Amino acid sequence: MLDSINGVPDAERFLDDRDLERLTPIKRVTYQVMRAQGIGPKYFRIGTRCVYKWSDVVEWIESGAAAKQHVSRPRRSAK
Question: Who's near 34: CB < 8 A, 6+ residues apart?
């Protein structure tokens, strides 16, 4: 999925959260939590997969929304 010349994806390519984890400082689980909370970059469902256009992710990061959005993860219950 990445451009073989410089390792940057084509702006219109679809990437999953594993690809984004390699390309951004954000963990895969954080993208999953953001989807559940209705925040984060725009994504598309293709069957059971959730994918992102690289251009949408870059726009979300550049807009500053990535820094402003707070992701609250559910606490694990003590055993």
Answer: 40, 41, 69, 71
